[in-house]
Write a structure and sequence with these properties.
This protein has helices spanning 14-23, 34-45, 66-78, 92-102, 114-124, 126-131, 143-155, 206-213, 216-239, 256-268; strands at residues 2-8, 27-30, 53-57, 83-89, 134-137, 164-171, 182-185, 243-250, 274-279. With 291 residues, the chain is an alpha/beta fold. It has a 5-stranded parallel beta sheet with strand order 2-3-1-4-5. The chain has a 4-stranded parallel beta sheet with strand order 7-8-6-9, with helices on one face. Helix 1 crosses helix 7, helix 2 runs parallel beside helix 3 and helix 9 (216-239) packs across helix 10.
Length: 291
């Protein structure tokens, strides 16, 4: 029996993926209560059920029974029932935009802001994301493009480079990100903090970007960084790595690191991998010098 678990961030395209699989002959069940998963698998894999292809949709609400969920997956392994996990993701900004356009409530909102609900959901979904066989970032995808990727993986059996890259800017004064795979210190670049008109701005503003990049050192560093990252990516894919966190830090995480992270993100767009950017400390204002 071919068994696929479809999960991921709410609003990232789970329903679309399940619809594709259902159209291609998979028996699809969405949001089955966790206590029933074991019984469902038992029936589906039996001679009575005789179901050859199954896709099970699981969203964050199932994590109320996370222990039972892990137990169900562990039992599948013991019973030699193989499964694959498809995790659908998207940037926070994209998810917020989609919720506002559809005017739907986030399943964890309970009256709270969408941003806080998304943050909580990411924490709850860490287990599934770490176990994922495939991760698809739908931030830049149209519905038809997501359908094509799902068909490519599960219907056509084509190879899918399952690497998800996060470019993360941060401030050293707030601590080094624990999940960094590659970390670069850009505190040697020209510092906008000492320019009074630039100090309140961030690396998302053109004035700051121009100041930081108006230097031969900045351009040389960025070119070498891009060259190295583009060299590493196919080698990481070959090695089987599925997550890569590239952290870029300056003192406060507001100007230089944000600028370089944005430049790197633009250069890596369009590759055969998931890609997102986060500015961890951009909103943390400090009166200390050196930002």
């Amino acid at each position: 029996m071919e068994f696929i678990i479809v999960t991921g961030m709410s609003g990232a395209g789970k329903s679309t993926a399940l619809n594709v699989l259902e159209d291609k002959g998979y028996f699809c069940v969405d949001n089955l209560p966790v206590p029933l998963i074991g019984k469902f698998i038992e029936i589906a894999s039996s001679k009575v059920g005789n179901i050859q292809k199954v896709a099970l949709g699981i969203d964050v609400r199932s994590y109320l029974n996370i222990n039972q969920l892990e137990e169900a997956l562990e039992k599948m392994k013991k019973d030699n029932i193989s499964y694959k996990i498809l995790f659908l993701d998207a940037s926070d900004e994209c998810l917020i935009k989609r919720y506002k356009e559809t005017r739907r409530s986030h399943p964890l909102s309970h009256g709270d802001r969408i941003e806080n609900s998304i943050t909580l959901e990411r924490k709850k979904l860490r287990f599934f994301r770490s176990q994922a066989s495939y991760i698809i970032d739908t931030t830049q995808l149209l519905a038809k493009e997501l359908k094509y990727k799902v068909e490519k993986i599960f219907i056509n059996g084509e190879k899918y480079n399952n690497l998800y890259i996060t470019i993360l800017s941060f401030g050293f004064k707030y601590g080094i990100p624990n999940d960094s795979d590659l970390l670069f210190d850009v505190r040697f670049l020209p510092n906008p903090y000492y320019i009074e008109g630039l100090r309140p701005l961030t690396g998302n503003d053109k004035e700051v970007q121009s100041f930081v990049m108006d230097s031969n050192i900045s351009h040389e560093f960025l070119n070498k960084l891009i060259d190295m990252i583009k060299f590493l990516i196919p080698n990481y894919i070959t090695e089987g790595k599925n997550q890569l966190v590239i952290s870029i830090g300056c003192t406060g995480g507001k100007h230089r690191s944000v600028t370089i992270a944005n430049e790197l993100y633009e250069q890596l767009l369009g590759g055969e991998y998931g890609l997102k950017i986060e500015h961890r400390d951009i909103e943390k204002d400090s009166r200390q010098k050196g930002i």
